[in-house]
Amino acid sequence: MDIKFFNRHTQKIETEKVYGDAQVRWLYQTPTGQFLLTFLVKAFISKIYGAYQNWAISKAKIEPFIQEFGIDLADFEPAPGRSKNDPYASFNEFFIRTFVPGKRTFVNEPKIMPAFSEARYFAYESMTDEQTVPVKGRHLSAKALLNRARWNDTFNEGPLLLARLCPVDYHRFHYPDNGKVLDYYRVHGKLHSVNPVALKEFGDIFATNERQVTIVETENFGKLAYIEVGALCVGKIVQSGSLEEFKRGDEKGYFLFGGSTVIVLGEKGRWTPEPDMLEYTAKGIETYLQLGEPVARV
Asked: pTM for the complete prediction?
């Protein structure tokens, strides 16, 4: 199964080049692989593997990765304390690289929401049980995702943005507006891959994977539930930004090694995703967006 997505910048349907594609397919589509999964999805195993990416020996993976996926290092800053000639001391330092100043800008029109992640997005005007892309709606309901009853009614049948970050992507995530944090908590769970191959086999991944939930009040979009979902081989989710008050575009945090997902829920009728995203979601196709460009509007 090739993974297709709409690239807003090229205005073309493109085929994703998947890091570790053969391994993911073996794990999720063979009996032996699925047996091994029962051990791999345990959080401590993924985190041990993720920790390896901090070791100096992992640095040897950087150059082959850059060549395979065509990453332009001129777009990114060296890690703190490193030079442009030797920018990263480990694969994780490379993985959580930051853009050079000015490389990405956040749309500043108050009623337009900027993309909080550089990722492939599914978008829904109202998340109901009848939705089936990419998984059954009941697995993307406020109740299933939030796991805290006090917020169920706030986000019931509201709009939803699901941003899937591939290993090749920028792995920091940002606040989409000015605001303050109302609640923050962790939901313990498994660490399945969030690759579409895995989602096809296990439709409840987003509702059962380990995740961190931040409920925020924003100036222009009302209350949002901001959810970072852990995944197979994600060493850690780091909340590097403020969990009190924030400005549009502020860094909220980042994922250490591994692809993962950010989900944002809104209040019913408060805002709607961009038309191109809704169009392609209805076709079962993600839309690739750069950080900071329009993702939704009041």
From this structure: 0.89
